[in-house]
Amino acid sequence: MSGTVPLLELIEVSKAFGAFQALREVSLAIEAGRTLALVGDNGAGKSTLIKILCGVHQPDSGSILFEGRQIAMRSPREARHLGIATVYQDLALIDTLSIARNFFLGAELKRRVAGLRLLDMRTMRARTEDYLATVGISRLRSPDEIVAMLSGGERQAIAIARAMYFGARLLILDEPTSALSVRETRSVLDFVRHANAQGIAAILISHNINQVMPIADRIVALHQGQVAAVFNRDEADAATVEQVIMNGRDGLPGNRASPVPAQPSDRGHRTRPQPGAEEEP
C-alpha cells in the first residue's frame, strides 16, 4: 500500500436536509493522477456529495482534507481556488458562442485600444487552438467554430480541457459519457487518461458501470447515502458492482457487510471488503 498522501480525502462526512439524511459517514480518498468512479442509483447521495466537493454544500459533520490539510470549502469559488473543477452534465457551454469564447468564458483576455478595453480575440483564438492541440484535441476545424455545431463528445472534451487550462488539479465529471456514442465515449475516457498522465485526479459520476470500470483505479458504490463498498481496479466485475448499487452491502458476495476502507493504494493493488457489523437501519 502506498504511503502517498491523498490529494483529496473525506472522512466520515454526513449531510442532512431536515429529516432527510442524504449522506451518512461517507469516507473516500483519491490520489493525484488517479481516477475514482462514484456510482450509485438515483437518491444514493451522489449529487449531494458532488455539491460538497465543489463547495455548494457544507457537511454537517466529518472532515475534508486536501493534500493532508483539513479544509472548509464555503463556496464554489474556494473549491476552484484549490483546483477543484466540476464539469456538469449540461457542461455550462453557450451554444451560440465560438469555441474560443467558451474556452475563456468568465476569464476573457482584454487589450487596450484607443483607451478602450476590448476583447483580445486574436490571443484567445491562438491560445485555445494551441492548448487543445497540446492535449490531443486536433480534429476541430477552428477555434471560431460555434459550439452548437460540435458533437457531445467534442463538447465534453472542450469543457474538460478548459478546466485543465485554468489549473484544475481535481476534475469532477458528472455523467461525462451520458448520451454519447461508443466512439465518443472512448474519446472522452481517453481524454481523462490524458489528464491523469498530467497528474490531474478525476472523479467520474456515472450510472454506466461498464463504461467507467476500464478507466477507474477505484470504484466507490453509494447506497442510501452510505458507502456500500469500495473496489480497487480489477477486483470486481460489473455484475457485482450493480448488485451493490441495488442492494447495498447485502449485494456483496457472501453478504460481507462492511465496505473496504477508502485508503490510498497502488494501481492494481487489491483490497477486498472485510466482514463487519450489519448496516444500521
Helix-strand blueprint:
Layout: E1 8-17, E2 20-30, E3 35-39, H1 46-53, E4 61-66, E5 69-71, H2 76-82, E6 84-87, H3 99-103, E7 110-113, E8 116-119, H4 121-134, H5 152-165, E9 170-174, H6 182-197, E10 201-206, H7 209-212, E11 218-223, E12 226-232, H8 238-247
Parallel strand pairs: 3-10, 3-11, 6-9, 9-10
Antiparallel strand pairs: 1-2, 1-4, 4-5, 7-8, 11-12
3D architecture notes:
It is a single chain. With 281 residues, this protein is α/β, with parallel strands linked by helices. It has two domains: 1-83 and 169-281, Rossmann fold; 94-167, no CATH class. The chain is built from eight helices and twelve strands. It has helices at residues 46-53, 76-82, 99-103, 121-134, 152-165, 182-197, 209-212, 238-247; strands spanning 8-17, 20-30, 35-39, 61-66, 69-71, 84-87, 110-113, 116-119, 170-174, 201-206, 218-223, 226-232. Strands 6-9-10-3-11-12 form a six-stranded mixed beta sheet, sandwiched between helices. A hairpin with a 2-residue loop joins strand 7 and strand 8. Helix 5 runs parallel beside helix 6. The longest helix has 16 residues, at 182-197. The protein is globular and about 70 Å long. Residues 256-281 have low confidence and may be disordered.
